[in-house]
Amino acid sequence: MPINIDRLWKRLERLAAIGADAAGGTSRFTYTPEYVEAKDLVTGWMKEAGLTVRTDAAGNTIGRIDGRNAEAPAVLLGSHIDTVQNGGRFDGPVGVLGAIEAVQLAVESGILFSHPVEVVVFVEEEGGRFGSSLLGSRAMMGQLPEDILQRTDKNGVTLAQAMKGAGLDHERLHDAVRQPADISAYLEMHIEQGTVLDSLGRRVGVVTDIAGPFFLNLTIRGRAGHAGATPMDRRQDALVAAAEIISAAESMARESSSALVMTVGRISVKPGAINIIPGEVVMSVDIRDVDKGRRDNAAAALRHRIGEICLSRGVECRVEELLNVPPVPLSARVIGAIATACRELGLPEKRLVSGAGHDAQVLAQFVDAGMIFLRSKNGISHAPEEWTDKEDIHWGTEVLYRSLLALAK
Ligand SMILES: [Zn+2]
Question: N or C: which end of the chain has fewer CB within 10 A?
Answer without folding.
Answer: N
